[in-house]
Amino acid sequence: MAAQVVHHVLRGLPAWSVAAARSIVRNGRRNIVDGDARTLLLLHRRLLSQSVHGIFINYIDYPRAHLFARPSPASSTGARVDGMLGFLPGALTDWWSVLDHCGGLVLCDMEERGLCVCNPATRQWTVVPPSTMAYRDCAGTYLVFDPALSPHYEVFKLPQIPEKPRSSSFRTDHPPFVGQDSESNDDDLRRLMEWPPKLWRLNVFSSSTGQWHERVFVREGGPVGTHQDMLLDPREPNFCGPRQRYAVYWQGALYVQCRGFFVSRFSLSDGKYKVIKSPADNEKSNHGKPYLGRSTKGVYFGMVKDCHLRVWILYESHGHMDWILMCQDDLTQYSQHVARYGRMMDAPWTVHDVHDTTETLPNDGLDWDSDNDGFFIVKDGAEEYGLPYFEILGFDPFKEVVFLTGLFEVVAYHLDSSKVQYLGNSRPNSYHYSIANGIYESFVYTPSMIGELNEGGTDGRSS
Hints:
By secondary structure, the protein is an alpha+beta fold. It contains six helices and 27 strands.
């Protein structure tokens, strides 16, 4: 009888409350609550997207990110996904870019106005209070959110590799060479220090407390190398980005692609971390943009160089991590075909632009069918048409698919069949033409109707 009562009560709660109920212990009935909550969370799957809606793209020398997506009908709330974040106050939308996406929430950099977390599906948003870490000391800012477990999110700031301190102002109380010798010795010692450190201190913001705090992660295993080794890798892998390297949250751990050709795995449950070298030797080349993402089987690492695609999956067993090459393919013919015929092909996806409204956006009433829509066969005559080029936009979390782009022409490559679908052109109409045009970063977006945001204000709460 008691179980039936609990079940009835939980059915009346929103999905995020059901998730929170899993941790409730009342009168020794945790098993009842936890079991029913698990069952009911499955009933709430309609609130947790099981398909890709689109891709947020940051463009070079352009003030706003754009959502490249398949037009879809209005949601059950009567509102479309707002890819241009039109629900934000005008002052916040003058200049912004996407830093990360996780579980349906989007972390945005609003320039001098700081960080903003928003949900384009529910049109809720909140400003994250500033942290104590200076901008120049931050290597990356990442979002962690699992709507099936909790309505709260966390923001992680990873510290930059310490570089040579700026020279102090000229002093007249001793000859210049004395200070230079001291600085030189300190710099030599710093360059020989191991990296990453045994104790890695990250700044973490929790939406449940509304405060930043320092969290120390203890390294398991040895370091990757020294400071000097890490600095051989430029801050940005490529002249066109990404400006901060990618990260992915998977099964309670945050995986971050780090400067120095390695990936760190931060276990959020026990405060430990491990490192593993990146799988691609050619990551050291400036001709490719490595991408760390998530797909059906876990954490994936991809790279396209000279139009050759390679994708690895991270295999983890008994504390050991290893990269397994799962796909390699020459995409030259596909690239040349899309470059020549792309504008003539059906384009199921479009770009949400600054002047679009609910009336101007197309709506065919159907979701994109990744199993049937847009497959094409390479035609004769595309050879030698343009310079073959692809880079990775992201991985589909629910299908063995990697999204690729050439000169804004986007395709979906199926890793299990090597079939290719044409999606459309991702260039916004408002994006001025320039030889510097291109893409900095991209983030595959999956909507969620769950997530507790302190709507319209600063997400600072009393502890």
